[in-house]
Amino acid sequence: MPKVHYPSINQSVEYEPGESTLLDISIENKIPHLHECGGNGNCTTCRVRILDGHQHLSRKTLKEQKAASLRKWDPSIRLACQCYPSGEVSLQRLIWSSAEVNKLQLEAVPEGEAEERAIAILFCDMRNYTTLAGEQSTYDTAFMLNRFYTILGEPILMNNGIIYQYVGDEIIGIFGTSGGGRQKNCLDAVRAALGIQHAVNRLNETEFRDFGTSIQVGVGLHFGRAFIGHLGHPQHRQFTVVGDPVNVASRIQGLTRETETGILLSETVYKSLDEGLLSIRHVHNRHLKGKEASFLLYEIEGFTETDIHLELQSSLDYILKNEDGFAARFYDHVFAAAPQVRALFPRDMTAQGRMITHMLSGIIFSLSRPENLKNGLRKLGKNHEKYGVRPEYYPVVLECLLNAVREEMGGQYTERVGYAWRQGLSMIIGEMKNWQAGETEAEKHRLTNA
Ligand code: HEM
Ligand code: FES
């Protein structure tokens, strides 16, 4: 039997030519391979570079041709979900983590010119940077800054945003580069701002406690039309955003210091969201530098009701930082509650554990890209039918996952987190069980080609 080789992980797997795409072969062999749209040729997250064996792959489908020409790919890049191998192939997966997926939006941003887009802009500034840098050793400051930027970036990436720039102790996030309506882009930005606040509080309570210091941030949000493009010297073009809304967002952020607030939204952002969605602490009426009219700025506390996305996003870190431990704990619960399902898992449980945590993380990151999520979950559900999973096993797995999350989070677990995970997992399972309702396009394509 021919093999597919994955040189970067030093692994080669045999396969039966004909029925399986390159993506199917990765999944079948428990090799994590992102596939946000479930193999429908829409998201391009399954892209691979073919290092050898190009001649053993099926021709590009129309979808793949379109994706390749839009993104100006060289011929060595293929969509793993769209090609069927028939001989030896060696490949490299190009997107490693869900956090990287947002960068793909930049591929649709024009080169050498700018296009106007309606975007939400987030400016976040560390307030006590100078004190921090003065009080700690250089080594500790570098460590803290690194942790700070990492945890600050995640909420932007989880909400379909792009990290546009780091300027000194400031981070700028952009939401809506590849489209999305006004409401969606503003909601993504607000969730990111609340996620940042949550992450900073947690960092202060945990890792930074030993340093005897805590970090404060100020976040300003605005929405408007700005020009985006890859601009600069032809040899060094950079993703650039220009326009008044960017300056306004920066000034709003500047006012968080003066007003001693955490998160300030412009009226445009606030009015783009459903009434009553956010709980407001105070409305400030201020002049912004360089503007004649005064601005209403909304200081927010959070969502009025539990926001499932935000709770799931904020608790994901607990699972990922002890990924193998979490998965082992989860499967121990499953096999204790339903010993008969143990036989369904004949292979390496560590690899299986990484597949499920990788999948959960991918799902949580793609909550802000719901257009792909449904298809991805239905593909997963269809696979589970093949693995011999019966519908009555799902509620058992749901409870075991909830138990594992609760144990992993320890003292940080709250009723709200529990509620969000129950709702989130019920949605995931609902789609998985419903796989037949949406026989996916990829499947139709496969059947037509058979
Ligand atoms: C929240 C729901 C679930 C999620 C997110 C999930 C996720 C996954 C993932 C990512 C894989 C790797 C293969 C693939 O991507 O197709 C997998 C495999 C598998 N899952 Fe699930 N799963 C869920 C529910 C269940 C349930 C209820 C069972 C029943 C016991 C189950 C049993 C299995 C089995 C038997 C395999 C294949 C094992 C093997 O081939 O060695 N899963 N699951
Ligand atoms: S394009 Fe292949 S999984 Fe989405």
What does this structure look like?
With 450 residues, the chain is α+β, with helices and mostly antiparallel strands. The protein folds into three domains: 3-96, Ubiquitin-like (UB roll) (Roll), CATH 3.10.20; 103-305, Alpha-Beta Plaits (2-Layer Sandwich), CATH 3.30.70.1230; 309-449, Globin-like (Orthogonal Bundle), CATH 1.10.490.10. 44% of the residues lie in helices and 21% in strands. The chain contains 14 helices and 13 strands. The strands form two sheets. Strands 6, 7, 8, 9, 10, 11, 12 and 13 form an eight-stranded mixed β-sheet that branches. A five-stranded mixed β-sheet has the order 2-1-5-3-4, covered by helices on one side. β12 (278-287) and β13 (294-303) form a beta hairpin. α8 runs antiparallel to α10 (349-365). The protein is globular. The relative contact order is 0.11. It binds protoporphyrin IX containing FE and FE2/S2 (inorganic) cluster (FES). Protoporphyrin IX containing FE binds at residues 27, 341, 344-347, 352, 355-356, 359-360, 380, 383-384, 387, 389, 393-394, 397, 425, 428-429.
Oligomeric state of the chains in view: single chain
Number of helices: 14
When the domains are counted, the total is 3
Helix and strand content put the structural class at alpha+beta
The profile of the biggest β sheet is: 8 strands, mixed
Mean pLDDT: 90
What CATH calls the topology of the largest domain is Alpha-Beta Plaits
The poorly predicted ranges are none
Strand content: 15-25%
Briefly, what CATH class of the largest domain? Alpha Beta
In angstroms, what is the radius of gyration? 23 Å
Q: Please, what is the CATH homologous superfamily of the largest domain?
A: Nucleotide cyclase, GGDEF domain
State the share of residues found in helices, binned by percent.
40-55%
Order of helices and strands: EEHEHEEEHHEEHEEHEHEEHHHHHHH
The coarse silhouette is globular
Bound molecules: protoporphyrin IX containing FE, FE2/S2 (inorganic) cluster
Determine the N-to-C terminus distance.
20 Å
* CATH second-level architecture of the largest domain: 2-Layer Sandwich
Number of strands: 13
